[in-house]
Specification:
53% strand; globular; mainly beta; seven-stranded mixed β-sheet
Length: 118
Amino acid sequence: EVQLVESGGALVQAGGSLRLSCATSGFSYDDYAVGWFRQAPGKEREGVACISSGHGVTDYKDSVKGRFIISRDNAKKTVYLQMNSLNPEDTAVYYCKMTHAYSNVAYWGQGTQVTVSS
């Protein structure tokens, strides 16, 4: 059974930090790129950060560059999103998505709520 379980979301004050985790199981993790997405109330889901399979090349949404860091622990089959200098605009439900490197197969987690108070 494929499972992606996000955790780490919380209420935090502006300027604070959080680390989100996405623990995975049930598929060949190493063949999948990973993305973190977020969806704020009334807005479309948007990509925040991604990391490739293999060499682990990363990319970020402009507004989070220098503040967020995506990483993956292949031994634990877990992906992380370290979020620093949070601001209220970062408030959203955050989702991880695993996408197979050579096909359209993709899996989503259930999401974790991040709320940043001003």
